[in-house]
Amino acid sequence: MTDQLKEVAHFLWEAGTLKNARRTGWWMAGVRDPESIAEHAWRTAVIASVIATLEGADAARAAHLAVWHDSQETRTGDVNHLGKKYAEPGDAVAVTADQTAGMPEALRTAVRAVVAEYEAKQTPEALCARDADKLECVLQGLEYRNQGYASAQRWIDNSRARIVTGSGQRLADELLAQAPLDWLRAAMGEKAGQ
């Protein structure tokens, strides 16, 4: 068990590298210091729990799927859509199998199952988690556009078009109708336009 825990500890160090790894697609929109993969995964997990709750799916399961959805990028990097035209980013299930090879069987099996479920796109929770990934990109794009990166509109439009759940689509439309600081104005009790 000590050797297996050593492998788990190695993976925890490895997972931490996602805090420094940037989402590369935003560079094409001109964003000099884009969000990290870990930042993206955190908000994706929050959004997945929201969409799943609204869709009547298991919110905890959807969030769990979202937490692991980009964990393979510690080894493959974040291959953006243009990059995928020339090089595949690696099979997420195969990368996860390699990442978890020396871990205790229960953990290894659980992590592999989560990644396989997300990649299969068959369960309501996987659909909610995948929509959360797209909705997080819409949100991030709106934030970048508000910061002056007009080119982010392409990512907003492309991500919005790929959302499939009714709740995800309605949330996207609501986000598109708001400004990034509307939540703060509402929390402060300010009226629109103040």
Protein architecture, described:
The model has no long low-confidence stretch (mean pLDDT 95). The longest helix has 23 residues, at 124-146. The protein is mostly helical and 194 residues long. The radius of gyration is 18 Å and the shape is globular. The N and C termini lie far apart (61 Å). The relative contact order is 0.14. Helix 3 (37-55) runs antiparallel to helix 4, helix 9 (124-146) runs antiparallel to helix 10 (153-161) and helix 9 (124-146) packs parallel to helix 11. It is 66% helix and 0% strand.
The geometry reads as: globular
Give the mean pLDDT: 95
Q: Which strand-content bin applies to the residues?
A: under 5%
How far from one another are the termini? 61 Å
What structural class do the secondary elements suggest? mainly alpha
Helix fraction bin: 55-70%
Largest sheet: none
The topology string of helices and strands comes to HHHHHHHHHHHH
- Rg over C-alpha atoms, rounded to the nearest angstrom: 18 Å
Quick rundown:
The chain is built from twelve helices and no strands.
Which features does this protein show?
single chain, 194 residues, mainly alpha, 12 helices, 66% helix, 0% strand
Fold topology:
Blueprint: H1 2-16, H2 25-28, H3 37-55, H4 59-68, H5 73-76, H6 81-84, H7 92-99, H8 105-120, H9 124-146, H10 153-161, H11 166-176, H12 182-187
Helix pairs in contact: 3-4, 3-9, 3-11, 4-8, 4-9, 7-8, 8-9, 9-10, 9-11
